[in-house]
Amino acid sequence: MTDPAMRDTANQWAIETRGMSRRFGDFVAVDQLDLCIPYKTIYGFLGPNGCGKSTSMRLITGLLTPSAGDIRVLGMEIPAQAELLRRRLGYMTQKFSLYDDLTVQENLRFMAQIYNLDSRSVKQLIDSQLSRYQLNERKTRLAGSLSGGQRQRLALAAATLHQPELLILDEPTSAVDPENRRDFWEKLFDLCDGGTTILVSTHYMDEAERCHGLAIMESGVKRADGAPAQLMRELGARVVEIDGENLRLLKQQLGELPEVVSTAQQGTHLRVLIKESIEDPERWLREVHPQLVHDRQIHAVRPSLEDVFVHCTGSHASSGGARQ
Ligand SMILES: Nc1ncnc2c1ncn2[C@@H]1O[C@H](COP(=O)(O)OP(=O)(O)O)[C@@H](O)[C@H]1O
Ligand SMILES: [Mg+2]
To answer: How open is the CA angle 196-200-206, to the nearest 5 degrees?
Structure first.
């Protein structure tokens, strides 16, 4: 451990990284990532494909060596102590990582062997996972024949069979319908309630909003970090919705104003992010640009996580909205 700041926080955080970076050749996939993730919480990585979520997770598990920076997980130095971490960690990779040609039960037995679990307690452990994850009736089915939701439940049952303290889930619900996603998240909250720390990546806003804490990532860089409610409160921009006809034209006209951060049509209204320096966006629009909005309704609305995401990524990031 070279970072002196990390010496004083030995057991405060489940995951702590300082300046964590990873290059592939000249390409920087993860760029000086600082993370402090508390125990027994669900922490999310939110960001588009290629922003460095999976690479960051591999660095945290010790499967990949950082190009620079310090990493401590459950009090252990990573990657030096990665072997010790392995038993205390459950990791669901982005691709379905079980065996399609083994049954549900066989997959779990195989997992028990990998983790070298005590054979006397394995049957009981597997039975309890099968019932906890509603897989009892399908235990003799081949994993390859399961639906998306069932496969994810099996993957979660396998990843938690050895009762890990830390669970890392890489886009676990990307192939799952909304109902099964909701159900999956209930299971995550049950695990968290039981004391498990969970790191999960997603590109779904609704999932990100469920996390206790969140890093918004772009091009390997953390653009914002905090509780979703806090990020929304501290957006640094004001949001209005504008109703009326010809929203496509209005979107184009508003987009040309330097005070307008972004515009997005949502059904019959336009959602507009306006720089915080404009204290009363409705008055500003009516007084400064009356020709654009004269017969339209304008409502100030509460920011959403998507607003935060839009504001701190892309070309808007340089306009002062990004927080480190
Ligand atoms: N082993 C590798 N070699 C070269 N480039 C890689 C490798 N792994 C990841 N990358 C690149 O690093 C970037 C981040 O990838 P990744 O962490 O998988 O992003 P995400 O999980 O957010 O989609 C991508 O541009 C990807 O192509
Ligand atoms: Mg990924």
So the answer is: 115
* CA 132 – ligand 1 centroid, Å: 34
Confidence (pLDDT) at 84: 95
Q: For residues 107, 110, 112 and 116, what is the CA-based torsion angle, rounded to 10 degrees?
A: -170
Q: How far apart are the first and last CA of the chain?
A: 23
SS3 content of the chain, % helix, strand, coil (to 5): 40, 30, 35
> Which residues partner with 226 through β-bridges?
214
| Pocket probe mutation, ligand 1, options 55, 64, 218, 219, max atoms within 8 Å of Cβ | 55
The domains of the chain, with CATH numbers, are 236-302 (3.30.70.100)
Side-by-side strand order, sheet with 13-24: 27-38, 13-24, 68-73, 76-78
Q: Using CA atoms, how far apart are residues 191 and 6, in angstroms rounded to an integer?
A: 28
What pLDDT, on a 0 to 100 scale, did the predictor assign at position 324? 38
Q: What is the mean pLDDT of each run of 10 residues along the chain (324 residues)?
A: 69 94 98 97 96 97 97 96 95 86 96 91 96 96 93 95 97 88 95 97 93 97 96 91 91 93 92 94 91 89 92 65 37
Q: What is the pLDDT of residue 226?
A: 97
Atom of ligand 1 nearest to the CA of 56: 17
